[in-house]
User: What shape does this take?
Amino acid sequence: MVSRLFNILGRSFRILVSVAATIVVLFSFGWVIARPMIRADRLNADQVQITVLHWGEKNEDEILARLVSDFESLPENHDIRVLRTNLGQLAAVNTKLQTMFAAGDPTDVFYLSYEKVADFASKDLLADIDQLIENDQANDTPTIDLKDVFPAALEAYRYDKESGEVGRGRLIALPKDFTTVGFYYNKDLFEQAGLPEPSADGWTWDAFVHAARTIAKLPGCYGADFATWESMTRIFLWSHGVDFADPTWKVLKLDDPSMQAALDKLRGWFHDEERTLVSAKTQLETGQEPFLAGNVGMAGPFGRWKAPTYRLIENFDWDFAPFPHAAGHASVNGVFTTGWAIAEGSKHKSQSWRFIKYLSSPRAQELMCRAGLAIPILQSVANGPAFSDPSLKPSNFQVFLDAADHARPIIWPADPKYLHQLRVRLEDIFKLNKPVAPAMQHVERGWKDIQAADRSSGSFPRMPWGMVITYLALPVLLGIVIGLTLWWRRRPRGLAFQEEVAGYGMIGPWVVGFIAFTAFPIILSLLLAFTRWNGMTTLEHAEWTGLENLATLWGSDGTFKRSLLVTAWYALLAVPTSQVVALLAAMLMNYEFKSIGFFRATWYLPSVLAGVGMAVMWKWVFHHEHGLVRAWVDPLLPFGLTSPSWFEKDAGTWAVPAFVIVNLWAIGGTMMIYLAGLKGIPKDLYEAAEIDGAVGWQRFSNVTLPMLSPIVFFNVIIAVIASFQIFTQAYVMTGGGPGDATRFFVIYLYNQAFDFHDMGYASLLAWVLLLIILALTLLLMWASKKFVHYEALKS
Amino acid sequence: MRLTRSKIFAFACLVAGSIVMIFPFWWMVVTSLSTPAEASASASASGFNWWPSDAQWSNYPDALRRMGSKPWIGFLDALTNTVVITTLVVIGQVFSCSLVGYAFARLRFRGRGVAFGLMVATMMLPVQVTLIPMFIMFRSFGWIDTMLPLVVPAFFGAPFYIFMFRQFFSQVPESLIEAARIDGCSHVRIWVQIMLPICKPVIAITTIFTFIFAWNDFMGPLIYLQSEEQMTLAVALNSFQNQYGDFRDAHYLMAASIVTMIPCIILFLVAQKQFVSGLSLGAVKG
Amino acid sequence: MASVTLDRVYKTYSGSDHPAVNDVSIEIADREFLVLVGPSGCGKSTTLRMVAGLEDIDQGSIKIGDRVVNNVAPKDRDIAMVFQNYALYPHMTVYKNMSFGLRMRKVPKPDIDRRVRQAAEMLGIEHLLDRKPKALSGGERQRVAVGRAIVRTPQAFLFDEPLSNLDARLRIQTRAELKRLHRKLQTTTIYVTHDQEEAMTLGDRIVIMKDGHVHQCASPHEVYNRPANRFVAGFIGMPPMNFFEGQLAQHEGKLVFDTGHGLLDLPSGAENLLRDRAGQSLVYGARPELLSIGSQGDAGGSSCLTMTVSVIEVLGNEKDVYLTLPSSQQVVARIAADVPADEGAEVRVFIETARAHIFEAGQSGANLTARVAR
Assistant: This one.
């Protein structure tokens, strides 16, 4: 009776699902097809649409939404419509820009992060703002008054083509706002610790660390939350009168002992002292706000962007202190800014320019100002009431402006590879507590290699595509002609021929697909492996570098070796554990309980859900402060042990195992395959074994395992291949870091292709992956002769 | 059924394992229904609830509304894109793989063995090798930022499913085909009117696994789709994570994640048998 | 070598409402070859598997020798089994297959080797010792399965339909060999089959089962000539016994059987036993070899019926003639091949009633003439 009821429920559920699915599918097709027509219609005949790409949290998002609607509402702008896209994070926008440039179809207007200035400007991708201003002046059109803009902010967007220097030359973007940095501090904690509040005129690092240590002694408190992004670290060095290199980046100073000492001092504050400094962040993480919890004395070096979030704090009083300076050195600061850039390839330059002008106008700047994210670019606005509203915290807002006087633009080399190297090694130092000197040496070596590679760039001949095609195509064509002739002459007669023609016709789709999506790409990929090409321009610009890429790979690419190690280590852990657990699970599932169907479903479900959603969830599970593991496992651990900080300071040992655990959670599919295999073992084999006297382990090793061996073999090969290709989880959860702790091979490949714009090198990496997988597969096949009993398969 | 010690132990393991499997997901659901304060607390040791005291079902529409830059449009765009792409991919795969699989199984033509072997070999190819050239190719067609690069290749067959169809069709009795030929069917008609109807189990399996793959595909849309209007749910969720990754927004993030996973769950509940049989077909013949 | 005793054994499978094995008691003497036979679902395999220990016993007891083995694990019962599908370990060579059980019991290697080779020689498979099962023919595999059992020198052999996967000729050949083997090894054997011919040729005694019950347990001769009931009578013997439903009647002062198509004399000695059953519905059974065919003109006796010839199957020396009664009931007669009979002809069929049987009505109606001396 009950089972009848379940049947009916099941049936009606299925019907419901089918109906719902059909509706959704029809609706979706309708939506997608009608979409271009509906949205295009919204533009009137005389209207132009400009696309705007940016990043930002909800505050920033809302500000921009308001600005856009304000812009569109102005009568003089009725011929422009703005289509805005917010990708959430800086890295995502930069990646998207790369691909858009490569496709030759960039957005009209976009956020330009200051570290990308040289990169994009050197490739002629940005419109010349100076020129646009000059055009306006020639036509008597109202335009931006550059003199009102904070010079420090403006300089960050000048680029000199000949020398490749940032800081002078033509203006290629306009700052949207900027900020200097300092430390937010918790007034209540300072009072509790009996410390005087830091003076708005400046204070020393000694005073800073003293305050941090004092507050750390308060129960349950931390001294300070110190963000060690490369730019913050750089200003830290500046405040000690040292730097990574000279301002033009021609002379490296990575071996400067006083520079290393400064870095080591900071490292020591993190790792050699308890609770003085909290976990160091190297990315713009939005998952953390220790300061908000109220048990952290200070937070920084942050700019004004934190103010809106902090204004929501209700449980304690806070304010803003200047960036400390080292005793005996002057106060310095850095300009953190994002700019608005217009794509040189934009088809709507004048409309985009009008939008930019609006954004830089006092009206828009005042609007932005009220939201309080940063300092407006116009000094008039900054000194006006919108910015200096005394009812808005922080009370010490003047500190920002004062710092602007001695703020320098933070300029990095054009090639993003440099910054990436530095970032990774700084993560090593601050997150993984590795010693400073070797890390800096590592950076130096890496930078020297990049320099050498850069110098040789441009000196390579263009890839002779014409010649290549001829050399390749001729033999292939010849082969095809010969093949076709032979085939025609030897063809069978009559019905067999008809069948043959039908056969070729029916496998046609696969053949075409194979040639277009497999054979051709593989050959092209192989050719690309010997070139240098940034992917943002057309193929003709690819340079033939011969075996140069190979030489780099073999000789000087430390990250490559590291990523191989990380991936191999992951495979070594993940494959055996997953197979053993899956097999054990399958054996459990083989019991004949009534409810076994339920268990099979619950164990199998996770593997069906793999994707971004799951990765997001696991990121939270492993979070070192708010994660599920921390909350549930820690209380159970004896002797006061705590679970590791998987992706933070313990990442060196525990990051890869974390991914192994994630992999274990999704073994449902493998388990089902083993279950099918177990069920395929004839029952009377087990009975014969029972009579023969083999039980327990003997039965398993003499009957079960040999009969399962073809399936084990199949699963192991699939698992090995899959583990070498791990990407989505790592990309979503860690991005490859910290340091290179989770820089799996395909992540590194992706970095090379889409972050460093080196398609040629990335192609070489892809081929290395292919060869590794091939080698492993052949190895496994050879080994299988020993342990796989194919007789187990029915003939 | 005797309750032996081993059976009790096995049952206990099953229960424990199920808890481990389901618990993170359960935690997600709870978080998705919590108020912001509860959400951030639920992640810490003290504040975990088995069910939120005040289930905020409104979190779901709130989260979906915030996806993308325009309220609701962002989510609807992503959803419809994903549905369309997945549907087209499934259709394309079923047709092309059954067609090619049938040809490999029952039609005799020279070079069949070589072609089949070649196809099997390509199953081991890591997708990354063809990634960049395919990108260049699609770029030259002008297909970037459309769904074409994701959909079109599905109509040219995928080795794994071709292999499955071929195995299945190999076991169809020759007499069935011979009878059809005597009745006057061309090979294509045989495929349409006889083969397709009887290979329903394999079609079901192909549909299901292709659906799961296409629905959750991340790397493809990440590379080929750019504008917000064209994004799929996977990419939109990743952006959403970047925007709303603060632990105080955990409830929105979890709600959005769960919504993207619902179709797969439903499919699983409805078609469990096919999932299981699909796996065994793939492995045991592999 | 040991006796095997089943005492009032019951077994019901969960989810089923009738027992698979219903109050079965059998005593198998030491060195005896006992065959369990019956239609599928009768419980013979289940009974065998309970002796092996592969199935639990709900009620009753099983003894091997003097030991009650109800709760003893299969490997400790000292029995060996030959499965229907042979159950050879596909990944092991014939040698390894045969030696597996001995290896599990930690028999010293030289002993293993000797015993395996001995068994192999006995079965004529020495040349196959290094091959894997996949490379063997069906008959060869079957021998390996037997060899695996022999090597163990158990107290009893259990055979579960071992010949059913062989083709007809091989089956007959192997049957003879099994018999020879039994004579040589003298081990108690329990053999399950659904083929009554196999049962008749192999068994010292046959146990005929249906629906979980034992219908008769006796020697082949006994079972053939004195079947306990209608089911046994119809099961044993090919072509099967002819049954005529009818009643006892008085005719010319003596008791006869009225089939509705004619009268038949009672089997010898039956008159006394059946006197008080006059008027009851009973069943008259006569094996095909008791029927003979005469032509229209032959002198009529009281034990003949008129039938129409429908199909004749020539077997060589004899032929089976299928006839139909006016009621469309089919009857088979086995006669010498040279006796004339034409398809479609109406003939008179004579029955040698002395050796016929009378059964109670019903599928398993008891044989009322069983005790008559024959």
